[in-house]
Amino acid sequence: MSLEAIKAISEAEENSKAAKASAIALSKKLIAEAEENGKLAVEDAKKKAEEEIRDLKRKAGEKAKEDAHNLSRTTENRKASMQVRANSRTEEAASLVIERIVNS
After folding, report:
1. How far apart are the first and last CA of the chain?
2. H helix or E strand, kind and range, residue 47
């Protein structure tokens, strides 16, 4: 083999090693960037989920207050209605008792 062929082969091998090292470095850089972007995406998703949870909790609290207020209002209406009926029945009962006492 001639000296020029050996030099050409050696140069090709060195170029190949350099290209391989460059490709490895580039792939490591791209992997690191992808991992960082992935971490950032996960953190962003986590923040959005936490905000959504806070918003849902706030809305649930507001709805619970509204429902409790409505229930209280309904209960008060029922109480008033029952009180009216009880009062009218009390008067009827008193009349019956008086009538029985008078008739006996």
Report:
1. 145
2. helix 3-103
Q: What is the DSSP letter of 2?
A: -
For CA atoms 29, 30, 31, 34, give the dihedral sign. positive
Beta strands in the chain (DSSP E): none
Total count of residues recorded for the chain:
104
Q: How much is the pLDDT for 57?
A: 97
Could you read off the pLDDT of 35-73 as tens digits, one per residue? 999 999 999 999 999 999 999 999 999 999 999 999 999
pTM here is 0.53
Distance CA 83, CA 86 (A): 5
The structure tokens listed for 104 are 């006996």
Tell me, what amino acid is at 87? N
| Phi/psi at 7 (5° precision) | -65, -40
Q: How many CB atoms lie within 10 A of CB 103?
A: 6
